[in-house]
Amino acid sequence: MIAQREFSGFEVRSLNAPALMTFTTSMWLAMNEVHSYCIRAAKTRL
Fold first, then answer.
1. Torsion sign over Cα 28, 30, 33, 37
2. Which domain of life is it from (predicted)?
């Protein structure tokens, strides 16, 4: 039982790492898109 619990905890960690990296990357890309959009909007306004 204990070994199974430890393994499931390890499984969760190994599954969470790629998901977290994907989430962070997508958030970073979204921020970059918003930033570049704001710059384009400011340039067209000028």
1. negative
2. Bacteria
Q: Cα separation of 35 and 46, whole Å? A: 17
Q: Which residue has the tokens 């790492």?
A: 17
| Alpha carbon separation from 42 to 14, 30, 31, 32 (Å, rounded) | 43, 18, 16, 15
Please report the pLDDT score of residue 19 as a whole number.
84
The token duo for 29 is: 């890309």
Tokens standing for residue 17: 């790492």
Summarised one tens digit per residue, pLDDT across range 1-41 is: 555 566 566 666 677 788 888 989 999 999 999 999 999 99
